[in-house]
TrEMBL record:
Family according to the record: Belongs to the EPSP synthase family. MurA subfamily.
Keyword vocabulary terms for this entry: Cell cycle, Cell division, Cell shape, Cell wall biogenesis/degradation, Cytoplasm, Peptidoglycan synthesis, Transferase
One GO term of the biological process aspect: regulation of cell shape
Annotated compartments: Cytoplasm
Protein's organism: Aurantiacibacter atlanticus
Protein name: UDP-N-acetylglucosamine 1-carboxyvinyltransferase
One CC-aspect GO term: cytoplasm
Length: 430
C-alpha cells in the first residue's frame, strides 16, 4: 500500500511546467507500430504505462532508446523480426490500441480477456471488437485470451458510434490508415488528446479530414514518413494546478500553449468565484480570499458541473471540481454522465469533515464551506480522485494521509515534486 503524507494549510504560489498528456502519449505510442520509419518523440513523461509499452516494444524486437533525463524516446520498428508474437500488456487499457498496428504488421494480436484500467465502472471492449471486425478482422476466444487475426490489407469502412468513445475513435482512425480507400467515423470523440493523435499521424503522412469534429474521414496510407514530434502540455494537469491554487487561496501560473481549449474550464472555475487569465503562453489563477458558489439567475436551480464527452467538462476533471465544491461556501451538483462508478469515493471526503450526498450513481451534491480537518483517506484506483484528495488535504492545516495514492504516478511523474515546489510539504511512504 502506497501512502502519501500531506501537510497542508499553506498558500501555494509559483510557476509550473506541466507534463504531457498521458491520454495523448499512449495512443501515439501505439500508433507508431504502423510505421517502419524512425520516430523521435519529445517531452515523453516517465510514467508506468510508458514503461510498459517500452518493455513490450523491446520484447517485440523494436529498437527503442529512451533517455528519461531529456524525456526523448527514439523508436524504430523496422527491426521487428518476421514471425514475432505479441501478447499485449494486461495492466493498462491502452493496450487495445496496439491491435491495429499488430494486425497490419503481424496479422495477429492477443489480449487477455479482462483488460485493466482505472476503477471507473464497466468499460467494455465490444465497441473495439466491432471496429476490428468492420475492417475485416476475425475475433475468437482461446482459453483466457481474445485473439484478433487479419490477413492482407483491410478495406475502408464507415461506422457510426453509439457513444463518442475516445479509445474507440482512436482505434478506428489507426485502423483506417491500414485500409484501402477512405473510411469515415460518425459520432467521433473530439477531445484534445484525440486531436493531438491526429496531428501526430498527419506528421507521419496521414490524410485526416474533420479532426476535432464528430465526423472524421481518414484515407488509407501505404507508407509513413519519419517524424520528430513534441507532445503538448496536458490540459488535465494545467486545470489541476489551477484548481490547487483556488482551493489553497494561492497564486499559481501554469505553462499552457493551447488556451483555446479552456473556455468552458474557465467558466467552471468562475462558478466557484475563481478567475483564470491567459497571457503569453501561461495560465494563472490568483485565488479569492474565499471560494463561494455563484448563484444562478434562475434561483431554484442548483449550480451544476456536468461532465460528459468533449466539448463538455471532461469526466476526468470532475474530481478536482468536487474538491472545490467541498471547499467553497454553497451547494453544487456534480453530474458524471460517463462512468457509473465515478462518484462512490465521495464517502472518503466525509473523513475530512465534508458534507456530500450521492443522489444516484451519476449525481453528487456538495454542501461546502464547513471547516475541514486532517484525515486518513483511501483512494480508489482513479488518478484524478487521488489528486482531488491531495487537493483537499493541501487546503487543511495539519497532516493528512492518502492511502493507495499510487495512481498519481500513472499520469503525472513530477506531480508531487511540483506541488512541493509550490509550498506543500509532501512525502511518499512506499
Amino acid at each position: 500500500m502506497t501512502a502519501l503524507y500531506v501537510r497542508g494549510g499553506q498558500r501555494l504560489e509559483g510557476k509550473i511546467e506541466p507534463s504531457a498528456n498521458k491520454n495523448a502519449v499512449l495512443p501515439i505510442l501505439c500508433a507508431t507500430l504502423l510505421s517502419d520509419a524512425p520516430i523521435m518523440l519529445r517531452n515523453v513523461p516517465v510514467i508506468t504505462d510508458v514503461q510498459r509499452i517500452h518493455a513490450f516494444f523491446t520484447d517485440l524486437g523494436s529498437t527503442v532508446v529512451w533517455d528519461m533525463g531529456s524525456q526523448t524516446l527514439a523508436i524504430d520498428h523496422s527491426t521487428i523480426p518476421n514471425g514475432a508474437k505479441a501478447k499485449l500488456p494486461q495492466a493498462m487499457r491502452a493496450s487495445i490500441m496496439m491491435i491495429p498496428g499488430l494486425l497490419a504488421r503481424l496479422g495477429e494480436a492477443r489480449l487477455e480477456h479482462e483488460v485493466k484500467g482505472c476503477t471507473l465502472g464497466a468499460r467494455e471492449i465490444d465497441p473495439h471488437v466491432a471496429v476490428f471486425k468492420a475492417f475485416g478482422a476475425e475475433v475468437d476466444y482461446e482459453k483466457k485470451d481474445i485473439v484478433f487475426r487479419h490477413k492482407g490489407r483491410a478495406e475502408a469502412t464507415r461506422m457510426w458510434l453509439e457513444y463518442a468513445s475516445v479509445t474507440t475513435t482512436e482505434n478506428f482512425i489507426i485502423s483506417a490508415l491500414t485500409a484501402n480507400g477512405t473510411s469515415q467515423i460518425v459520432n467521433a470523440a473530439c477531445e484534445p488528446h484525440v486531436q493531438e493523435m491526429c496531428t501526430f499521424l498527419e506528421a507521419m503522412g496521414a490524410t485526416i479530414r474533420g479532426k476535432g469534429t464528430s465526423m472524421v474521414s481518414i484515407d488509407g496510407c501505404k507508407e509513413f514518413a519519419p517524424v520528430d514530434y513534441t507532445f503538448v502540455e496536458d490540459f488535465h494537469e494545467i486545470a489541476t494546478f489551477l484548481a490547487l491554487s483556488a482551493v489553497t487561496g494561492g497564486d499559481i501560473s501554469v505553462r499552457n500553449t493551447r488556451p483555446e481549449d479552456f473556455m468552458l474550464i474557465d467558466r467552471t472555475f468562475e462558478k466557484f468565484g475563481a478567475e483564470v487569465t491567459h497571457k503569453d503562453g501561461w495560465s494563472r489563477l490568483n485565488a479569492p480570499e474565499e471560494l463561494i458558489v455563484q448563484q444562478n439567475f434562475t434561483s431554484h436551480i442548483t449550480t451544476k458541473v456536468e461532465a460528459a464527452p468533449w466539448p463538455y467538462i471532461p469526466a476526468d476533471l470532475l474530481p478536482i471540481f468536487i474538491a472545490l465544491g467541498v471547499k467553497a461556501r454553497g451547494q453544487t451538483m456534480f453530474w458524471n454522465k460517463v462512468y457509473e462508478g465515478g462518484l462512490t469515493w465521495h464517502t472518503e471526503l466525509s473523513l475530512f469533515g465534508a458534507h456530500t450526498l450521492l443522489c444516484d450513481p451519476h449525481r453528487l451534491l456538495t454542501f461546502g464551506g464547513d471547516k475541514l480537518v486532517p484525515a486518513t483517506v483511501t483512494s480508489p484506483y482513479i488518478i484524478r480522485v487521488a489528486i482531488a484528495m491531495l487537493m483537499v488535504a493541501a487546503s487543511i492545516e495539519g497532516e493528512s494521509t492518502i492511502l493507495d495514492a499510487d495512481p498519481i504516478r500513472r499520469a503525472h511523474p513530477n506531480f508531487v515534486q511540483n506541488i512541493d515546489s509550490l509550498g506543500v510539504n509532501v512525502r511518499w511512504d512506499d
